[in-house]
Amino acid sequence: MTARTFTLAARWIGGALSSAELRGADGPGWRGLRLAADSKALARGAREAIHTAVRASGHPASVLGSRTPTPIPLEEEAGVRLALVLATQVTGAAQAERIAQGIAGMSTEETYYWYARVAGYGQPAVQALRLLAAAAPVVAGRR
User: Fold this and answer.
1) Exposed, middle or buried, 33 (CB in 10 Å: 0-12/13-18/19+)?
2) What is the pTM of this model?
3) pLDDT digit of tens for each residue in the chain (143 aa)?
4) Are the C-beta atoms of 101 and 138 separated by less than 8 Å?
């Protein structure tokens, strides 16, 4: 099986996430995900997930300090986890953070399952993932 490739371009202004775009070379259900500059609640929930994905892919956190987004290649598992966080766009900051924590606590198998569901089924799968991830208690990094 060929590994999926993910590329992240994030823009930071004054230490705050301004925008982010995650692109993936994947099947027909994958179109890439974009985080809009005005999604402040999602930005708070996604910030740690972006840092985690970058570090898990072997890059220093300093690659995120640019005002001009430079494409950063991500490892497959890190890209899958980040894709799930960005796919679950919500308006409330607390809910966005709970969802990001729930996804971080999922096993590798769970993240790939949900990635396949979201990429293949779209909005209904995203809604189910939001409910599952937001309700999941996180204990010692795992649900």
Assistant:
1) buried
2) 0.76
3) 556 678 888 877 776 777 778 887 555 445 555 554 445 655 666 788 888 999 999 998 888 876 667 889 999 899 888 888 888 777 677 777 888 888 888 899 888 888 888 777 666 777 777 777 776 655 444 44
4) yes
